[in-house]
Amino acid sequence: MLRDETILFTTEEAAAADADSVGRGIEIAALMERAGYAVAASALRHFPEARKIAVLCGPGNNGGDGYVAAKVLASHGCNVAVFSWGRSSVEGAARDARERCPLPIEPISAYAPERDDLVIDALFGAGLTRPLPEPVQTLIEAVKLADASVLAVDLPTGICGNQGRMRGAAFDADVTVTFEARKPGHLLMPGRAFCGTVEVASIGMPRRIVEQHARSVSVNNPKAWQIEYPLIEANTHKYRRGHLAVFSGGRSHTGAARLAAAAGLHAGAGLVTVGVPPDALDVAAASLTAVMVRSVSSRLDVEQWLSEAKIHACVIGPGFGVGETIRDYIEVLAAKPCVIDADAITSFSSNPGQLFATFKNIGSPYILTPHEGEFARLFPDLARNDSLGKIERARLAAARSGAVVIDKGPDTVIAAPDGRCLINENAPPWLATAGSGDVLAGIAGAHLAQGMPAYEAAAAAVWLHAQAAQHAKRGMTAEDLVTAIPSALESLNPL
């Protein structure tokens, strides 16, 4: 059976799955034995040139996996040395694994890393919730200075499994071997940067147990939203595919809205119209062809437009300008599904509750697309709370605002007010370029205009946006990103 790569385990869920497996007759020692064999196999496969393998074992089950791996590697003729932390506190299956390890066991203070070493980090794994002890931090620095290779068991020591945060220091792994499913810390920054290549090994846990417990957060990919993705049927026409309205700033600030509009058209909206101030009509009209333009200069103009035209969704914020005008527009636009982006977010920084109440009172779905700074403007208390990871803060923001929140970054998190949550992982680093966020807003708007629910619309937009960047390749501009959307859409076949 193929493994479902969208599944993620929080550390609590992984522990619950272990306990459930034991309750159904699978001994924890058997799981540990298989985990240790998987680690040893990975070490032999990836690091055949290692002159010495130093296995660093902690006091918990992670350390138990290390003791098993050390025994297996020694049986294959490898030069293996075992070092422990907290030896006196080892209990249960990990203690039994240590006692079955035939090699001498020294304290980690006795290990002096060398360049040709392979370090198997089986110290603390994913469950770490406190800063690392100073001797462990010192050892991590020594391993880095020696430039030794590192294979991490479950997660590099020093990285929080749920939040991806670094607890004082962390091993910089070349390879990480985890079991049954990845953890959020494998995807969230900065943890992702410390994991190297992540391998997921099956250790005999029944698939039904994995799927039963891995429920709180998943990887964003088409499986999460494809059932809601709009199909282009043989008898469709442009009006059935939705009319998207994008609102632009003044004469010298139309570029962002034009990017969003073009992205919306490429992403499937049947019609896209850009609402622009009268002084910008000629600029917009001269640079847009398939996208229509309309003069809009007041709240009354917006009300009249929405009463005359069948608008299915709106995007407001890219290049619009901060101030009272955009707040007035949004009071009207809240009657439609909306993407609230950029300047629209900043315009409510002094009173975020006004934005939230506007949509809650009317009941229309909406998507917020903040980057880190914009998130802090709408949710300053959440941004300041160092105990919250990106998943927790996105969920709390979605619940408070009633919006689907796209908390942007290299590890974008999509959260719904009902607690559903996805982590995106397909974005290449060159997606960080001027205008990229405007393109994302346009794609999300197109999905809303085509009738997708807000959560699925946002998740699909984030994935498609990143997929387009992969097709556009290094050196791309936001304009290149727009024109790469059709190629990215081909990845959705046979949708």
Automatic annotation (TrEMBL):
Binding-site residues, K(+): 62, 121, 157
Annotated EC: 4.2.1.136, 5.1.99.6
Record flagged with keyword NADP: yes
Residue sites binding AMP per the record: 408-412, 437
Cofactor: how bound: Binds 1 potassium ion per subunit.
Keyword Zinc: no
Catalytic function, reaction form: (6S)-NADPHX + ADP = AMP + phosphate + NADPH + H(+); (6R)-NADPHX = (6S)-NADPHX; (6S)-NADHX + ADP = AMP + phosphate + NADH + H(+); (6R)-NADHX = (6S)-NADHX
All residue ranges annotated as the YjeF N-terminal domain in the record: 8-211
GO BP of this protein: metabolite repair; nicotinamide nucleotide metabolic process
Pfam families: Carb_kinase, YjeF_N
Domain YjeF C-terminal: from-to ranges: 221-492
GO molecular function: ADP-dependent NAD(P)H-hydrate dehydratase activity; ATP binding; metal ion binding; NAD(P)HX epimerase activity
Positions of (6S)-NADPHX binding: 61-65, 125-131, 154, 256, 319, 371, 438
Function: Bifunctional enzyme that catalyzes the epimerization of the S- and R-forms of NAD(P)HX and the dehydration of the S-form of NAD(P)HX at the expense of ADP, which is converted to AMP. This allows the repair of both epimers of NAD(P)HX, a damaged form of NAD(P)H that is a result of enzymatic or heat-dependent hydration. Catalyzes the dehydration of the S-form of NAD(P)HX at the expense of ADP, which is converted to AMP. Together with NAD(P)HX epimerase, which catalyzes the epimerization of the S- and R-forms, the enzyme allows the repair of both epimers of NAD(P)HX, a damaged form of NAD(P)H that is a result of enzymatic or heat-dependent hydration.
SUBUNIT field: Homotetramer.
Record-linked HAMAP family: NADHX_dehydratase, NADHX_epimerase
Protein name per the record: Bifunctional NAD(P)H-hydrate repair enzyme
Gene source species: Rhizobium rhizoryzae
